[in-house]
Amino acid sequence: MRVVFIGPPGAGKGTQAQRLAIHERIPQISTGDIIRHAIRSQSALGKEFKDYSDRGALVPDQLVVRLVADRLAAADCQHGFVLDGFPRTVPQARALERLLDDKNMPLSAVILFNIQETTVINRLSGRRSCEKCGHSYHILYDKPQKEGICDIDGGRLTQRHDDREEVIADRLKVYQEQTAPLIAYYQASGILKYIDGEKAQSEVESALAKVLA
Ligand code: ADP
Ligand code: AMP
C-alpha cells in the first residue's frame, strides 16, 4: 500500500497515519516530523527549517523533496508507505510522481481528510506533542493517562511552537493557497478518496480502512 494523506493542519493525518502504519506494517513518513527532528538537532539545515516552521510557512519545495527522495530510497519503503503531510504543493506532487514513476511504484490512493476551520482551531490549540517521540495527544479528545506525560515513553508533552493561536491563521491561509490545489490535481488522476475528519478517531480509522480495502 502506497498512500498519501492530505488535509488541513489538525485534520488527523498524523494520528491516522500512525495507526495505519502499525496495522499495515509500513513506515509513516511525516515530513513535519522529519523537519522538527532536524530543527532539534540544530544542524545547519535545521536552523533554516526553523524559520519557516515557526511562521507556519512551507519549507521550499526542493529541500523537502530531497528529504522525501532520500527517505523513499530506504529499504523499509519498498513494500509500501504512508506519506503524511507531503506533498503540500503541486510542484511537490509532480516531483513525487516522477520519483515513484522511476521506481515503478505508483500511489494506491490519496486520502483527503475534510474538517471545518473551527475544528482546525480546536484541534491545534489543544494538541500536545511528546518532546521525545513526537506522539500527539489532545487536552480534550485524546488525553494521556498522566497529564503532561507521554504514555509511550514518559516524555514531556508540550505545545508545538506553530500550534499557537497567532500562527494557526497563517497555516490555514498557506493550506488554502498552496495545498488545496492538490485536490483538483489528484481528482484528475482518479485516486483521490474523501474521509470525514470530523468524526471521532476510531470512526475515522474504520472509514479509512473501508476506503483502502
Ligand atoms: P495533523 O497531522 O493532520 O496535523 P493530528 O493527527 O496531529 O493532525 O491531530 C491534531 C490534533 O487533533 C491532535 O491533538 C489529535 O490528538 C487530535 N485529533 C486527531 N484526530 C481527531 C479526531 N478524529 N477527533 C478529535 N481529535 C482528534
Ligand atoms: P506538519 O507537522 O505536517 O504540520 O508540518 C509542520 C511544518 O513543517 C509545516 O508548517 C512546514 O513548515 C513544514 N513542512 C512539513 N511538511 C512540509 C512539506 N511537504 N512542504 C513544505 N513544508 C513542510
N→C terminal distance: 10 Å
Outline the biggest β-sheet. Answer: 5 strands, parallel
What is the CATH topology assignment? Rossmann fold
CATH superfamily grouping: P-loop containing nucleotide triphosphate hydrolases
Strand line-up in the sheet with most strands: 2-3-1-4-8
For the record, the CATH class is Alpha Beta
Shape: globular
Q: Return the structural class.
A: alpha/beta
Q: Could you give the order of the helices and strands?
A: EHEHHHEHEHEEEHHEH
Question: Any ligands, ions or cofactors bound here, and which?
Answer: adenosine-5'-diphosphate, adenosine monophosphate
Number of strands: 8
Cα-atom Rg, whole angstroms? 16 Å
Q: Average pLDDT value? A: 95
Point out poorly predicted stretches. none
Count structural domains. 1
Beta-strand percentage? 15-25%
Helix content: 40-55%
Query: Which CATH architecture is right?
Result: 3-Layer(aba) Sandwich
Number of helices: 9
